[in-house]
Design brief:
Elements lengths: L1 E2 L14 E5 L2 E7 L13 E8 L6 E10 L7 E6 L3 E4 L15 E2 L5 E2 L7 E8 L4 E3 L3 E3 L1 H4 L6 H4 L1 E2 L2 E2 L15 H12 L29 E5 L4 E5 L14 E4 L4 E4 L3 H11 L15 E6 L4 E6 L3 E2 L3 E4 L3 E3 L1 E2 L2 E2 L9 E5 L4 E5 L17 E2 L10 E2 L14 E7 L5 E8 L42 E6 L4 E6 L15 E4 L6 E4 L24 E2 L4 E2 L1 E2 L3 E2 L1 E2 L2 E4 L9 E5 L4 E5 L9 E3 L5 E11 L1 H10 L3 E2 L2 H9 L9 E8 L3 E7 L6 E7 L6 E8 L3
Parallel strand pairs: 1-11, 41-43
Antiparallel strand pairs: 2-3, 3-6, 4-5, 4-10, 5-7, 8-9, 10-11, 10-12, 13-14, 15-16, 17-18, 19-20, 21-22, 22-23, 24-25, 26-27, 28-29, 30-31, 32-33, 34-35, 36-38, 37-39, 40-41, 42-43, 44-45, 45-50, 46-50, 47-48, 48-49
Length: about 675
Amino acid sequence: MKSLGGAFLLVVVHLMFALTARADGYNISGKILKPDGTPYSGSAVSFLLEVTNPAGTCALYREQIVGVDMSNTKGAFHVILGSGSRIFPTTGALESLFSNDSVLNCSDGSTYTPLTNDERSIKISFYDGSAWQAFAQQPLKSVPLSTIARVSGSTKTIDTYSAANLLRSKTTVPELTAADVTNLQALLGGTSTTYLKTETDPTVKAFAKTNLPTCAVGTVLKSDGTNFSCVTDNAGMSLPTGTAGKYLRHDGTNWVAAAPTIADITNLSTQLSDKVSKMQVPSCTANQTTNYNFITDAWQCLDINQALAGDVTGTMAANVVSKIRNVAVSTTTPSTGQVLKFDGTSWAPAPDNTGAGGTVTSVGTGTGLTGGPVTGTGTISLANTSVTTGTYGSANQVGSFIVDAQGRLTNATNIAINFPVTSIATKTGAVTLDYGDIQSATSRYMTYKPNNIACADGQILRWVASGTRWECSTDTTGTVTNVTSGNSYVTVANGTTTPTITLNVGSGAGTVAAGNDARLSDARTPAGAATGDLGGNYPSPTVARIQGVPVDTSAGLQDGDSLVYNSTSGKWILKRAGGCEAGWTRVNKGAPFCIKQMDATLRTFGASLILCSDAGADLCTTTQLVHACRDGNKLALNATAWTTSLFAGNVALALNCSSSGGAYGVSSEDLSMAPAKSSYCCKPASN
C-alpha cells in the first residue's frame, strides 16, 4: 500500500471525518480533495478501514467496503464501520474493540493490553483505480467508547449488580423511602391492597373491567348488561321471613313468602308440556346434529359431514364450489379486480374489460319524447304532433312541410300546381330554348349566378373544361396603358402608346456592361488584410483558424503530422505520427507515453505539479522516468526530475538519469526545504 501520493496523481490535501455510533456500526464521513482544490470522484470506490491502538502498532480490526458511489458527492464520502467485509477478526462484537477491561488481539498475532483511559485510532485508505492510498491515522474520541453501555447488561456491573438487577427511569424521581420499597415489593409480589389488579376472569364482561363510574354516597353500581350506572341503595328494603315449603313471590306490591298453589303447578306443567329437557339432549361433537329417534324415544347425535356432489364437492364441513350450472370453475387463484368469466370451456378469473360502468338511476325525456322519467323500467316514445297521417303531393299538387328544431314535422299541407302551361317564349310542346330566345329590352339584364354565387365587380364568366361549367374569374387579358422606367439603367419612349424600351449600356454610373466589356475578362486580384479563419494579406492569405479556433504550427511540420484540439491552450496543435503532440517525445519502453521538458527552469514539487496540470499532463511516475532515461536518454543525462510519489505529505521522490546507458538514482526530498528540480511532464501516447 502506498501513502497518499505515489501513483495517485490527484493528491488528497484535506480530510474531514466524523464518527458516531449506530446500532449496527459507526458512521464515518470525510471529504477528499485533489491538489487543485477540486473534489475527488469515483462511481465505485473501495475503502479499507482499520481500528488500531493509540500508537497505531496493533491492528485490532480491519474491514473492506466496496462500491461507494462518489460520482456526485463533491468529494464527500460516508461509510459505516461494521458494514463491510471483515478481514480481521472474522468474529466477535464490534463494541469489544473499545473496551479497556480486557486484553485484545492484534492482527499480527500479538496482544494489546489497554490502559484505563486509552482511546483508539482509525486508519482510512481508499483505492483510486490503480493503487491503495492511505491517510494518516486519526484518533477516535469518546463517542465509540460510549458504546460500552450496550454490553453493560451482560459484562458490566455496578457494585456486583448487573443491569438486569437494576431499575431505570427516563425521568428524575425522588429517593425511595423504606415504606416506598415495602409497597413496591408488595405490588410486584401481587399482595398489595392499595391498587386493584386487572380482572382476568373470562366470565366477567369487558365493560365491568374498565370505565367504572364514580358514585355518590349511598348509591351502588347497577348493570344493565352493557354499562354500569349509579343507583340508590335499597339495602333497607325488608324481605319476609321464609318457612319450609314456601318460596319468595311478588304479589304486585311486596315480596311475600307463599306456598305453591295448584294453579302454579298446572301453569308450570302447561309451559313445560312442549319443551324438551336439556338433560334429554346429548352433547354432540363438531359436524354433528341432534336427531330424535321415535323408535327408541330418545335424542341422538348424527354426523352431517356427508360427501357432496353436483356443483359443490367435498364434505359439508369442507365444501368447494367446483362448478356453476355444471360448468367447471378454474382452480386458478384470482387477483384484485378480476371477475369470473366464461372462457369457452370453464369459469376462470379474468380482467373486467366492460369499462368503468355505472348505475343509471333515472332517464328523463326531452322535447318531443314521452314516457319519462324512467327510474326502473318504462318505455320512451316519440310524442304525437298535429300533423295528419297521410300522403302528401300528387300529379297536380306538391307537399309543403314545416320542421321544428328537433326535426319533427309540425305542419304538412298540399299546394296545388297552376296548370296548364300553354307556352314558353311563344313555344309549345317539348320546348328547347336557345340564345335567340333571349330578347333585349329595357330593364332586362343577365342575372346568372354560377353556383348561385354572384361574381365580384370586374370578374368575367370563364368556361372551365375540367368541370364543364362556367365560373367567375378575374380578367387577365387586359391592355397595357402606361410603361415607365424604374431606374437609370432603362429608358422608355412613348410609354402611353407604343412603348420603346432601351437598356443603357456604358461604363459609367447608371449603365450596364456589354457582354464584350473588357472589365469582364481582366484580372481582379484582391488586396488587403484577410479576415475570418484566414490570416495574413491578400492575395496570399494563410489558414490561421478553423471554425474560429486558432491553428498553432509553431513546432514545425513533419510527415504524418495531424491537427488535434488542445483544450488547455484552446488551439489546434500538431500531433506527431508517433502518437504525441508537437514538442512531445514518444517513449516506447513499457506502455508507450509522451514526455516533455517544459523548460530549463528548476521548480519545486508543487510548482512542477501545477505546470504539468496546466499543460494537460501529469508529473511522470518513477517507472516512466526510468524508461525515459533508458530509451536514448529522453530524460536528459544528469537531469533530475520530480516523480509523482509523495509520502506523508512532505516527502517526494526525485529521479536522476546518471549515465547514457540508463543508470539512474532515486532520492527522497524533504519538501519543507523547497528543493527545485527539472520540470518533466508525461501524458499517454494515443497509439
